[in-house]
């Protein structure tokens, strides 16, 4: 039986630290293998004949064997991450009961979790007092409640340790098997059917995730060899998405640099993805696609969304593109994450409303996963060119938003499916034209919170039909978001938001909480600047020589952290 002293003596954080270190070592290994492959490719430019063919074939075999090892190691790291988070949460919950809730209660706890209430002293003048008996009954009831919760957590911790040991042992056996069989075991018939085109991978993110968890590293690699955009599939664990998308990024970047017609016009986008990842260690590449749209597409998370209690997906708007916008958006997301994590770290575990969130983390995902309108919008006819006209046409139509919304909705579902805990707090965030796409996406699937800013409308249907739109008549209930969890911000000089094109501005819709954008001193004592123009909301400004988020940025951070009481509401 698992005991309290055993749980106190455990350090699940060490599992997370080990997973991080293992991931770094694996990345170094993959980098060296890639360098080997590049050297061979270089040599093949000048070496022809049978010897060259044999060397190339041998190098490819080593590359595949290395892929198997790297994938197996990623799987081991994922298990350490998954169970490290789960065991850590269980341990934290147990320690909170013992050291916070029961502190000063006078109750004693045995190592096996049995709880004993203190004895209520009897009144010497009334030894059989009913009040004494009643008080004792209340204390005994409290003790029983504590005991039930403590023993449940002890059981949960023990079961988690057993499951972790079994899962990690299985992964280690798979890794060990590659020592004797570098090619791995033959793929099973259901996987072979997919490779042969007789079957397809599940399209539902949850079903795909469940299927993926049954695969060996060699089977995963075989599927990647068939579909090198495998990492873009919603429902795969984030570590695997990142692994395969980085593989594909390296491949396409090399080909683009060498003038491959299929990708050479995306060289700037590919280089921006590589630069952003290199500049920001710990980020994950969850989407990398240069083929399915006019634009390149990418999604980068600041941290691992599968292990964070709070996850937000940020969809941008007009003129956003991978080449020119990705790095800046990730910088903005990092600032939001830093503030959100700081607020979560400062929570009092005794707080009756938010105590259970103390010490949680937030992971934002920058999502440029669909084509967006591009072009300078201007009222001056002398400034109009083809880009201006096409941008005006695109941004005045919801065609791109409707094309992107199903992809965004599927991405939300994938974040839930791959998460280690089904209770993840998921926030959909949309700016500008991205809020239109977000509004359409959350009409297709559920999220926990919705935050839009600078919104020209959410493309909601009208109660009496879109052929007769009436202000305030849109069906807000179509948004798959719980009541009280819809938020909006509109800056005073935001011309895009103040000229709504896709229905009413959310600030006029019922059921939305309206958040402040004006200068404000927030509860952390920082005097924050306001956001007035359309691009201001997530950007930092200098306050006392330091980069600080504006009032609007504070609001973004508190909402995505699941702390709406700290957000600044409009009076």
Q: Can you summarize this structure?
A:
The protein contains 15 helices and 14 strands. With 571 residues, the protein is α/β, with parallel strands linked by helices.
Q: Assembly state here?
A: single chain
Strand content: 5-15%
| Biggest β-sheet description | 8 strands, mixed
Distance between the termini: 55 Å
Structural class: alpha/beta
Low-confidence stretches: 377-392
Helical content class: 40-55%
- SS field, number of helical segments: 15
Q: In which order are the strands of the major sheet placed? A: 3-4-6-5-7-8-9-10
Layout: helices, strands, pairs:
Blueprint: H1 4-9, H2 13-44, H3 50-101, E1 108-109, E2 115-116, H4 130-180, H5 189-195, H6 205-212, H7 217-226, H8 238-257, H9 267-279, E3 283-289, E4 297-302, E5 310-315, H10 322-345, E6 362-368, H11 386-395, H12 399-418, E7 425-431, H13 433-441, E8 449-453, E9 486-489, H14 495-498, E10 513-514, E11 520-521, E12 527-528, E13 540-543, E14 546-549, H15 551-560
Parallel strand pairs: 5-6, 5-7, 7-8, 8-9, 9-10
Antiparallel strand pairs: 1-2, 3-4, 4-6, 11-12, 13-14
Helix pairs in contact: 2-3, 3-4, 3-7, 6-12, 8-9, 9-10, 10-15, 12-13
Please, could you describe this protein's structure?
It is a single chain. This protein is an alpha/beta fold and 571 residues long. It has helices spanning 4-9, 13-44, 50-101, 130-180, 189-195, 205-212, 217-226, 238-257, 267-279, 322-345, 386-395, 399-418, 433-441, 495-498, 551-560, and strands at 108-109, 115-116, 283-289, 297-302, 310-315, 362-368, 425-431, 449-453, 486-489, 513-514, 520-521, 527-528, 540-543, 546-549. The chain is built from 15 helices and 14 strands. The strands form 4 sheets. An 8-stranded mixed beta sheet has the order 3-4-6-5-7-8-9-10, sandwiched between helices. Strands 1-2 form a two-stranded antiparallel ribbon. The longest helix is centred in the N-terminal third of the chain and has 52 residues, at 50-101. The N and C termini lie far apart (55 Å).
């Amino acid at each position: 039986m698992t005991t309290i002293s055993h749980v106190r003596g455990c350090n699940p954080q060490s599992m997370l630290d080990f997973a991080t270190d293992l991931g770094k070592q694996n990345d170094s290994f993959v980098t060296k293998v890639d360098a080997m492959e590049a050297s061979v490719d270089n040599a093949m430019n000048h070496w022809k004949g049978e010897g060259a063919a044999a060397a190339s074939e041998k190098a490819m075999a080593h590359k595949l064997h290395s892929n198997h090892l790297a994938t197996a190691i990623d799987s081991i790291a994922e298990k350490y991450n998954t169970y490290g988070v789960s065991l850590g949460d269980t341990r934290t919950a147990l320690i909170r009961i013992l050291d916070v809730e029961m502190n000063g209660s006078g109750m004693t706890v045995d190592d096996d979790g049995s709880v004993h209430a203190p004895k209520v002293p009897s009144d010497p003048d009334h030894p059989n007092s009913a009040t004494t008996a009643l008080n004792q009954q209340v204390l005994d009831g409290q003790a029983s409640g504590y005991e039930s919760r403590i023993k449940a957590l002890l059981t949960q911790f023990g079961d988690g340790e057993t499951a972790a040991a079994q899962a990690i042992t299985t992964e280690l056996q798979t890794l060990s098997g590659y020592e004797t069989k570098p090619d791995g075991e033959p793929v099973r018939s259901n996987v072979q059917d997919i490779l042969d085109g007789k079957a397809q991978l599940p399209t539902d993110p949850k079903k795909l995730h469940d299927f993926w968890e049954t695969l060996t590293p060699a089977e995963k690699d075989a599927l990647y060899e068939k579909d090198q955009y495998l990492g873009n599939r919603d429902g795969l664990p984030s570590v695997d998405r990142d692994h395969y998308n980085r593989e594909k990024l390296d491949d396409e970047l090399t080909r683009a640099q060498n003038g491959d017609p299929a990708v050479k016009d995306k060289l700037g986008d590919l280089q921006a993805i590589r630069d952003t990842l290199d500049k920001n260690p710990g980020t994950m590449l969850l989407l990398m696609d240069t083929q399915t749209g006019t634009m390149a597409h990418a999604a980068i998370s600041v941290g691992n969304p599968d292990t964070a209690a709070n996850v937000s997906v940020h969809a941008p708007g007009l003129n956003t593109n991978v080449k020119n916008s990705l790095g800046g958006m990730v910088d903005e997301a990092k600032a939001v994450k830093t503030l959100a994590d700081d607020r979560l770290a400062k929570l009092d575990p005794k707080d009756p409303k938010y105590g259970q969130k103390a010490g949680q983390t937030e992971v934002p995902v920058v999502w440029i996963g669909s084509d967006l309108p591009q072009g300078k919008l201007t009222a001056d006819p002398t400034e109009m060119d083809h880009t201006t006209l096409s941008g005006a046409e695109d941004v005045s139509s919801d065609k791109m938003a409707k094309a992107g919304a199903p992809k965004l909705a599927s991405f939300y579902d994938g974040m839930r499916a791959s998460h280690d805990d089904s209770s993840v707090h998921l926030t959909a965030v949309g700016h500008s034209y991205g809020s239109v796409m977000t509004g359409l996406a959350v009409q297709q699937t559920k999220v926990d919170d919705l935050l839009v800013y600078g919104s020209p409308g959410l493309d909601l249907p009208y109660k009496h039909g879109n052929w007769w739109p009436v202000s305030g008549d849109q069906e807000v209930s179509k948004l798959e978001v719980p009541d009280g969890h819809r938020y909006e911000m509109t800056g005073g000089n935001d011309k895009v938001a103040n000229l709504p094109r896709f229905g009413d501005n959310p600030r006029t819709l019922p059921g939305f909480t309206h958040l402040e954008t004006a200068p404000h001193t927030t509860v952390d004592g920082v005097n924050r600047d306001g956001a007035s123009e359309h691009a201001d909301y997530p950007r930092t400004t200098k306050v006392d020589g330091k980069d600080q988020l504006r009032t609007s940025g504070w609001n973004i951070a508190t909402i995505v952290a699941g702390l709406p009481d700290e957000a600044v509401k409009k009076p």
